[in-house]
Specification:
- The protein is α/β, with parallel strands linked by helices.
- The protein is 23% helix and 22% strand.
- The chain has 7 helices and 12 strands.
- The longest helix has 13 residues, at 23-35.
- Mean pLDDT is 82; it is low at 87-92, 134-143 and 170-185.
Length: 265
């Protein structure tokens, strides 16, 4: 049995004027946590995380896994959406992740991600952790670790990267992982927010991070070694998120069996 992980973090979005600050730290932090638990980790950071590189890395990792292997993929960066072209989306939108080269139109859509996550050997455990996108509001939680100032949403609106002639009519975007990835065959998904919210890019104790990543890893550090993903999720929310300044409700998607897996096992 092998344990492999891919950690993607993109702060730099050339040509969009929508750079982030905490995604590279997120990828570094996830990689450290996974390596400490025996995973062989590959990272794609900023210019390394082109669309082609992301597709290749995910395809090789998932497609090359054998029964009993454990695969973890973490993504920290912008999410976006485009009009659905093939009629498979009830909401009329294809959601997508934003590679480093999205300024050249290279969006990674859910229709492209789905087959990558669907085609893996029986008995392979696949866990996706996505810290990206959208909006909402609540009034509970603890913000003591949060640095002063406003956080930034990890959503890249279509007008930031699409040509003016191709822009769709304005709509409220969904979380990319709720549209394509959660239906794509991946066994378990941990997402930073609901499909009608933003995940926030902010700073804690002087260091940029995604709010979900920061609190997820803080919660993980306090869990016993035998804790399940469901145990971990219950520790993240409502204990840490949402808060007044970080109005995002983390989500977990997967079967009861997958939720009962030991974290990073």
């Amino acid at each position: 049995m092998s344990k492999k992980a891919l950690c993607i973090g993109i702060n730099d979005y050339p040509g969009t004027q929508n750079d982030l600050s905490g995604c590279v730290n997120d990828a570094t932090d996830w990689a450290a946590a996974l390596a400490a638990r025996g995973f062989a980790v590959t990272k794609l950071i900023d210019s390394q995380a082109t669309k082609a590189a992301m597709v290749s890395a995910m395809t090789d990792l998932i497609g090359g896994a054998a029964k009993g292997d454990s695969i973890i993929i973490t993504y920290s960066g912008h999410g976006t959406w485009v009009p659905d072209q093939n009629g498979d989306e009830p909401d009329g939108r294809d959601e997508g992740l934003c590679p480093w080269d999205i300024g050249s139109g290279n969006v990674l859509l859910d229709d492209e991600i789905a087959p990558i996550f669907t085609h893996h050997a029986t008995g392979v455990r696949v866990v996706l952790i996505s810290d990206s996108c959208h909006s909402g509001s609540v009034t509970r939680g603890n913000s003591l670790d949060l640095d002063p100032g406003l956080p930034r949403a990890r959503f890249l609106p279509p007008e930031a990267w699409m040509k003016a002639a191709d822009l769709p009519a304005p709509r409220v975007a969904k979380l990319p992982t709720s549209g394509g990835l959660s239906r794509s065959g991946g066994d378990l998904l941990l997402a930073g927010c609901t499909d009608s919210q933003f995940s926030w890019d902010t700073s804690f104790k002087g260091r940029p991070n995604g709010a979900f990543t920061y609190y997820a890893l803080k919660a993980l550090a306090s869990l016993p070694a035998s804790a399940s993903y469901q145990d971990w999720f219950k520790k993240i929310t409502p204990g840490f998120l949402p808060t007044n300044q970080l109005p995002q409700n983390p989500q977990i998607f997967g079967t009861r069996t997958a939720r009962s897996w030991k974290v990073f096992s």
